[in-house]
Design brief:
2 copies of one chain form a homodimer. The first copy, chain A, is an all-alpha fold and 310 residues long. The first copy, chain A, has one domain: Farnesyl Diphosphate Synthase. Chain A is built from 15 helices and 2 strands. In chain A, α2 packs across α6, α4 runs antiparallel to α6 and α7 runs antiparallel to α9. The first copy, chain A, is globular. The two termini of chain A are 17 Å apart. The relative contact order of chain A is 0.15. Chains A and B meet through α2, α4, α6, α7 and α8 of A and α2, α4, α6, α7 and α8 of B.
Chain lengths: 310, 310
C-alpha cells in the first residue's frame, strides 16, 4: 500500500458521475434527509431533540449512507427511498457512537472534533439520545415510501445488524477484550459484528431499495465486497489511531493502546497492518469486477476507506 | 375506591374464559415466547445474552403483554401472532427499565425483587443489554408470521411509542422535572409519554393482529380505554410508592419523594390520588361498554391495574 494518502481517490474512468461530484451531492441529500427525519428542536421535548440532532447532524464521514446510495444505484433504486434508508442507518450509527462514548463504556470526550454528547448534555441525556435515535431509525423505516416488501427487507437488515448478534454484540466483546490479546480470528469476529454488521446492512439495504428482490449474483458480489471493506475499515481505523493527531482524527487518538484493547497494529505491527489494509482494498475491488462499470462508486468508496486520513 | 385490595379481580360474568384461568395461561404463553425469541445463553456473546434474559425473563407483571392479548381477542387475532407482538413490547419495556435504573438515571438497585442489571452485570453491560433488547424487539416484529400489512402496522405503533415523542421523551421530561412542582397538565403529559405510549401501543398492536384494519368504532373505544388505563396505572404507581414496602413492591419504594420528583400524591395528596385512580378505572370500564361482553379481559385488566398491590 502506498504511503501517499489522498482523501479524494482517482476519478473512476467510466461514464458514471465522477466520485468528486457524486459524493458531495449525495452527502448533501443525506444531510437534508436526516435533518427532516429527526424531530425538530421545536418539538417537545425540545432539549432532547436538540441533543439528538447534535449527535447526528453536521459531521461524520457518512460512509454508511454513501454505501447505501452506491449499492442502490446498481439496481436503479429511487433516490428518495435511498435517502430514507441511509438516514435510518446513520441514526443507528450515531446512537452507537453516543453510547460507546459514555463514561461506563469508552469514556471518550471528543467526537467529530466536538465534545461528546454526554460531555455536552450530561450522561442521562446521552443515554436517552441513543435510545431515541435507535427508535427513530425504525420509525423512519416504517414510514418509507417503498413497497411493503421493501420496507420489511430493510427492517430485517437494520434490526439484525443492530442486534446483539451484530453491532451491540460486537461492542460487548470489545469491552470484554480489554487487556486481552485476542487471536486474529477472534479480533475479526469482533469487528465483523461491531462495525462490519452495519456496513453490510448499508450495502444490502441499498440493494433492497430496488424494485425486485436482490438477484443472487449481485448479492454474492456485494457480500464479498462488504466483508473486505468492513475489515479494511477497521484495520485503517487501528492504523490511524496510532499515526494521527486529534485535530485530524476528530476524536481522541491512542485510546486503544491506552485502554489495552487488541488492535490490528498490536497484533501485526504497523507496517503489516498497512499492507493488510491495502490487500483488503484490492479484495473489495475484485469482488466488484463482475458488476463492471456501474459499480464505480462502490469502487471509489473502497479506495476512500483504504486511503482515508481520518 | 375501595380500600380492600385484591390481586385477582372478580371473575367477569360473561361467557369468556374467567380471568383467573385466562391470565396465567396467557402469562405462560408469553413467557415461553419471550424465552424463544431472545437469543439463547449459548449463542455468542453468551454473557450479553445471559444478561438480556435476566433483564427480561422470570418476573414482571406483563401488563403490556396481557393488554395486547386481550385486545387481540376482540378481533379474533392469531394467538401466536399476539405472542410475538406481546414479546416485542415486553422487550422494549424491559430495556426501558434497565436504562432507567442506571446510576446516571434513577440509580435503582432493586427491580422485581432482584438486583438491577447494572448492579449484577456492570454498567457497560446494562447499557448494551438495553440497546440489544430494543433492537431485538424490532427483529421480532420483522420475523412475525402475520401479513406484510400487519407487520408494518405493528412496526409503526411500536417504533412511535418507543421514540422521543413517546417513552424516551417522557423519561427525558421525568429527569428534567426533578425538584420541580409540575402543574397537573404537565405531569399528565409526561406520563402519557413515559408509560402511556407503550400501554397504548400494547392495546393497539393487539388489535392490529386481526386480519382486517382496526374498525373506527373499535379504535375509538380502545383509545379511550388506554388513555384512562395508562393514567390510572401511573396514579396507582405513585400511591404504591408511598404506601408499600420494598418486599411487596419488588423495587425501592419512596424513591420519587427522595428524588424530589413530582407525583400525583405530592400534587393531590394520598386520598385524592386514590380517588382519582378509582375514577380512572371507571372511565376505562366505561370506554369498553360499546364492546359488550367480549371485552371482559380488558375489563378485568383495568380492575387489576387499579387494585394492584405492587
Amino acid at each position: 500500500m502506498s504511503e501517499a494518502v489522498q482523501f479524494w481517490p482517482d476519478p473512476p474512468t467510466t461514464g458514471a458521475e465522477p466520485l468528486q461530484a457524486w459524493m458531495p451531492r449525495i452527502l448533501q441529500r443525506v444531510e437534508c434527509a436526516l435533518g427532516a427525519l429527526l424531530p425538530s428542536v421545536e418539538v417537545f421535548p425540545c432539549a432532547l431533540h436538540e441533543a439528538m440532532r447534535y449527535a447526528t447532524l453536521g459531521g461524520g464521514k457518512r460512509l454508511r449512507a454513501l454505501l447505501c446510495h452506491a449499492a442502490g444505484e446498481l439496481v436503479d433504486a429511487d433516490p428518495r427511498l435511498l435517502d430514507g434508508a441511509a438516514s435510518a442507518i446513520e441514526m443507528i450509527h450515531a446512537y452507537s457512537l453516543v453510547h460507546d462514548d459514555l463514561p461506563a463504556m469508552d469514556n471518550d470526550l471528543l467526537r467529530r472534533g466536538q465534545p461528546t454528547v454526554h460531555v455536552r448534555y450530561g450522561e442521562a441525556t446521552a443515554i436517552l439520545v441513543g435510545d431515541g435515535l435507535q427508535a427513530q431509525a425504525f420509525v423512519v423505516i416504517g414510514e418509507l415510501s417503498g413497497s411493503a416488501e421493501q420496507k420489511l427487507a430493510l427492517l430485517h437488515e437494520l434490526a439484525h445488524a443492530s442486534s446483539s448478534l451484530g453491532m451491540v454484540g460486537g461492542q460487548a466483546i470489545d469491552l470484554a477484550s480489554v487487556g486481552l490479546s485476542l487471536p486474529r480470528e477472534e479480533l475479526e469476529r469482533m469487528h465483523r459484528m461491531k462495525t462490519g454488521a452495519l456496513l453490510r446492512a448499508a450495502v444490502l439495504m441499498g440493494a433492497h431499495c430496488g424494485v425486485s428482490p436482490i438477484e443472487p449474483g449481485l448479492h454474492h458480489a456485494l457480500d464479498d465486497y462488504q466483508r473486505a471493506l468492513g475489515l479494511a475499515f477497521q484495520v485503517v481505523d487501528d492504523v490511524l489511531d496510532v499515526t494521527t493527531d486529534a485535530a485530524t482524527l476528530g476524536k481522541t487518538p491512542g485510546k486503544d493502546a491506552q485502554d489495552h484493547k487488541p488492535t490490528y497494529v498490536s497484533l501485526l505491527g504497523l507496517d503489516a497492518a498497512r499492507a493488510l489494509a491495502g490487500q483488503l482494498g484490492e479484495r473489495a475491488r475484485d469482488a466488484l469486477a463482475p458488476l463492471g462499470a456501474r459499480a464505480a462508486h462502490l469502487h471509489g468508496l473502497a479506495d476512500m476507506v483504504v486511503h482515508r486520513v481520518y
